[in-house]
Amino acid sequence: MKCVIIDDEPLAIEVLTKHLTKTQGLTLLRSFQNAFEALYYVQTQRVDLVFLDIQMPGIKGLQFIRILKYPPKIIITTAYKEYALEALELGIVDYLLKPIPYHRFLSAVSKAMEMPSGPKAALMAHESSKDRDYFCREGSVYVKIREQEIGYVHGNRNYCVIHLCDRKIRVKGNLGYYSSIFSEDSFVRVHKSYLVALAKIEKYDSDSLWIHGEIVPIGRTYKTILWNYLKAKTL
Hints:
The protein has about 240 residues and is an alpha/beta fold. The chain has helices at about 10-20, 35-45, 60-65, 85-90, 100-115, 120-130, 175-180, 225-235, and strands spanning about 1-5, 25-30, 50, 75-80, 95, 135-140, 140-145, 150-155, 160-165, 170, 185-190, 195, 205, 210, 215. The chain folds into two domains: about 1-130, 3-Layer(aba) Sandwich (Rossmann fold); about 135-235, CATH 2.40.50.1020. About 30% of the residues lie in helices and about 30% in strands.
């Protein structure tokens, strides 16, 4: 099986690499500390099995799975217990807690080898990303919005403006709050004051995005994260 390791911790990569090299039937193609670089590689190369960390800068492990249209077999490797149920619902092979002993690694790999390839994980990812809706308070009333309608959110200190397809809604709360409640596989922070829906990006250049015909600036500290995502989608 052709394998990839994705983890932002060098020590974790070293441990998994040692486990891989002494296990028959596994070939390590690449290891990545940058999840966006890994995303492009997995989308364009034949990969049978991914060892994937959950808590990584820029893009989380579960978000990584949901972005892939046809994900390979995936074994989660993490120090966090609380994501296990959600990860299993996405069709992963196994959920390994760090530090990972060799016997648990071998057990997970055995499951992967026995598991037939198929669209199950992709189907689960699709089902988990069904459109969500919310009631947001605007003045004295609560207004229903759907995630599919949102183009971007412009944040100020104590309130945000949600830009929909055909209107704008001013709501209480800072941008960090809305970043945490909207689907992490669909929205990304591109500036300290802007959260955008990836599917609504119409065009871009080195400094800006266009959404609903409006210009959204790209902050310098967010540029690398966004650029790697856009590169993976650019012909």
